[in-house]
Design the sequence.
């Protein structure tokens, strides 16, 4: 992974000093609440319901064991002993004091970490594919480009005060595991007719209040033009994006209001001035950064491990875990392991200090000291030998990270919601918990198969509910917490937005609703159909009919649509 | 030169102040000891800023007029520069297009860019364009809601003068110009990104 040189370290250290000064001036009354707000947000610091919340950047999800131990230490010393992995490959601490934040940042800087631009109206922490560098279907490793974008965007002076937040994702594979269609800018590697790898640049995607898929604004952009093209897009947005209404300030609204053609013409006109200018990338720089992402020293192994095969035959529980939590690897004899942070009874994405320490140990022993965070809020050991899988499973069980549910019903994606977030309309975590409790039969969950349930506590869609096969959105109804349900959303190359099935539900109805949706699917599915396939084939009507069937006990009082 | 796509003027947002003109009130500027930061030093400001609402004849001396006034009285103002030997400045608001100054850019001793709210970042792109596209070499001044914690970014996009908001300590603000000793990306005051200045591999 990327290792800081003295320049990177200087910039991060100077940021710590700068933020320390800003915090002191705020506490001394020299900076007003309004003046301090954008400064602290650009350092990941929110004022939440109970306490400040600090969001720490995990650039494109990559962590070393040393960094994970530092996160464990921070959870222990400054928080209540746990952290929360987010849907954007970051980690949040929910209970630090404002006064302690400069100290936390100083500690993070010692392990090449920071909280720069994890919030605020600026270019946010860049995200990518959690299987980058090891996937079978990769055209290029996206990590060097994600790192280059991280550096380009860090304290970019022209774009520090944009109309609204701005998210960039990079994907280097055929399948889109980075959700590039749902980002303000998606950078998607493609192979050109001449065999070169170039980038399709997508713009204007996003979830939130106005969910919309991104459009390709530029096809096959040669790689050296990446920064100048991004500069051109950002400049058009910075100048013309709406600042009068925060709900219409994202770039997607600008693209929509102008139309893609006019938007593209503006960007191209701007780019004509910037193209081949000083910010043009050099092969030397691409090579310098790419050298940080070379493969670890893999052992030459056979593609099969007799010991592993025997374990699979002997141990059904292990085989079950492998079938869900182990992902194929480009290197023979290796696999990627997803540690599930979705155990029933634990808020999705939460990890304790002890668990973090244990994961760091696992990474050191079995996976070259590296850990990855996924946007599904799980952790990944990317380079595990097949012959070590059994041992890793046993260890993961011990720390509570071996739930065999990756991609299954209980692998629920949920934002912190009303338990922590001051923007929430409704709670998310208790809904996730109620669904997990309801579906406690592992055989049934395996029979249901692949399904994604996403829960957001409000329109901001941090739980990506629009792209959940079942999406659950917290809404406020006359001051009460209700939930709107969508089905048929999906991520990836054929991404789609879910459709609302009808009036919203009370909190205690939600487990029933999900159960009815699942039963409808089980009744109607063809062989080999997943929930999403059936939902697409039959549409929402059969689901709706079942869920809202009054005879089945749906409360008659619940009629108003939200 | 493309026209601005939209001339969006920020509407007051609930709970927030209306913007633009209030920060250009002379009283406020004067109360900051009539000082500005120029090229890293705190100096006396010898310029008078003319508000957008000012309709009377211009006072004598060094004035910074709004863009609209420059466009409306271009001949007379040009004569003021060339015949009366009076240096002239012009100021732009966040929604205004710097391209409108392109054909006369070298006439101005000062161009000021208004930040209606410090968190309104349009001025950063305007400054970048004035310097890098239209070649402005004179004093580029940030006016309006100009606060310490934005000065470093402002400097990087080409501002060399800062009219720090009246109620703020200008001696405190000037320190921000040294917040960072190194930067990654290219910008006006350092067009070469780090990778072209310092990370260039040694030639074998
Ligand atoms: S979706 Fe809403 S409730 Fe959930 S974390 Fe985001 S802002 Fe908070």
Sequence:
């Amino acid at each position: 992974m990327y290792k800081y040189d003295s320049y990177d370290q200087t910039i991060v250290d100077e940021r710590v000093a700068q933020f320390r000064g800003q915090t002191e001036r705020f506490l001394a009354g020299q900076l007003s609440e309004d003046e301090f707000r954008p400064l602290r947000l650009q350092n990941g610091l929110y004022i939440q319901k109970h306490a400040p919340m600090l969001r720490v950047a995990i650039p494109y999800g990559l962590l070393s064991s040393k960094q994970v131990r530092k996160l464990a230490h921070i959870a222990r010393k400054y928080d209540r002993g746990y952290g929360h992995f987010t849907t954007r490959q970051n980690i949040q601490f929910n209970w630090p004091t404002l006064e302690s934040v400069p100290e936390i940042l100083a500690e993070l800087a010692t392990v090449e970490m920071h909280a720069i631009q994890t919030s605020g109206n600026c270019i946010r922490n860049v995200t990518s594919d959690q299987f980058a560098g090891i996937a079978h279907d990769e055209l290029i490793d996206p990590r060097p480009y994600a790192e280059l974008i991280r550096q380009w965007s860090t304290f970019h002076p022209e774009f520090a005060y944009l109309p609204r937040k701005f998210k960039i994702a990079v994907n280097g594979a055929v399948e889109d595991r980075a959700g590039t269609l749902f980002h303000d800018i998606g950078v998607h590697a493609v192979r050109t007719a001449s065999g070169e790898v170039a980038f399709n640049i997508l713009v204007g995607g996003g979830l939130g209040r106005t969910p919309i898929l991104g459009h390709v604004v530029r096809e096959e952009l040669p790689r050296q033009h990446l920064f100048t093209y991004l500069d051109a897009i950002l400049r058009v947005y910075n100048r013309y994006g709406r600042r009068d209404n925060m709900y219409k300030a994202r770039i997607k609204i600008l693209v929509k209001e102008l139309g893609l053609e006019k938007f593209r013409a503006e960007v191209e006109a701007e780019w004509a001035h910037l193209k081949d200018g000083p910010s043009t990338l050099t092969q030397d720089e691409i090579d310098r950064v790419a050298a940080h992402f070379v493969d670890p020293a893999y052992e030459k192994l056979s593609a099969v491990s007799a010991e592993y095969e025997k374990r699979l035959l002997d141990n059904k529980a292990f085989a079950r875990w492998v079938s869900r939590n182990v992902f194929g690897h480009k290197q023979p004899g290796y696999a990627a392991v997803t540690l599930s942070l979705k155990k029933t009874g634990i808020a999705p994405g939460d990890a304790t200090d002890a668990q973090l320490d244990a994961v760091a140990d696992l990474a050191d022993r079995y996976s070259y000291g590296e850990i990855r965070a996924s946007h599904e809020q799980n952790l990944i050991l990317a380079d595990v030998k097949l012959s070590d899988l059994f041992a890793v499973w046993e260890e993961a069980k011990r720390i509570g990270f071996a739930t065999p549910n990756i991609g299954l019903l209980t692998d629920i994606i949920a934002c912190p919601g009303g338990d922590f977030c001051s923007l929430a309309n409704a709670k998310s975590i208790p809904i996730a918990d109620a669904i997990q409790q309801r579906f406690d039969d592992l055989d049934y969950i395996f029979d249901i198969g692949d399904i994604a349930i996403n829960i957001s506590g409000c329109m901001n869609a941090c739980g990506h509910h629009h792209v959940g096969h079942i999406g659950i959105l917290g809404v406020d109804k006359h001051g009460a917490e209700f939930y709107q349900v969508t089905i048929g959303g999906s991520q990836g190359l054929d991404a789609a937005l879910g459709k609302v099935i009808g009036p919203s539900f009370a909190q205690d109805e939600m487990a029933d609703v999900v159960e009815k949706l699942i039963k409808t699917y089980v009744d109607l599915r063809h062989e080999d159909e997943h929930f999403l396939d059936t939902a697409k084939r039959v549409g929402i009507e059969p689901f709706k009919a079942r869920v809202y069937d009054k005879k089945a006990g749906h409360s008659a009082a619940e009629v108003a649509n939200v | 030169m493309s026209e601005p796509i939209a001339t969006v003027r920020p509407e007051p947002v609930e709970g927030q102040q209306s913007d633009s003109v209030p920060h250009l009130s002379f009283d406020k500027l004067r109360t900051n000891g009539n000082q500005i930061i120029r090229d890293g030093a705190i100096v006396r400001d010898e310029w008078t800023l003319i508000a957008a609402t000012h309709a009377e004849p211009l006072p004598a001396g060094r004035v910074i007029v709004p863009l609209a006034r420059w466009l409306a009285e271009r001949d007379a103002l040009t004569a003021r520069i060339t015949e009366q030997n009076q240096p002239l400045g012009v100021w732009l608001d966040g929604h205004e297009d710097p391209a409108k100054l392109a054909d006369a850019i070298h006439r101005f001793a000062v161009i000021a860019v208004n930040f209606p709210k410090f968190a309104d970042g349009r001025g950063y792109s305007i400054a970048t364009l004035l310097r890098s596209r239209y070649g402005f070499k004179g004093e580029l001044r940030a006016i309006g809601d100009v606060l310490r914690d934005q000065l470093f970014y402002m400097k990087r996009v080409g501002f060399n003068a800062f009219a720090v908001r009246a109620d703020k300590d200008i001696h405190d603000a000037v320190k921000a110009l040294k917040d960072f000793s190194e930067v990654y990306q290219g910008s006006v005051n350092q067009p070469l990104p780090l990778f072209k200045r310092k990370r260039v591999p040694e030639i074998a």
Observations:
- Confidence is low (pLDDT under 50) at residues 1-31 of chain B.
- The longest helix of chain B spans residues 122-133.
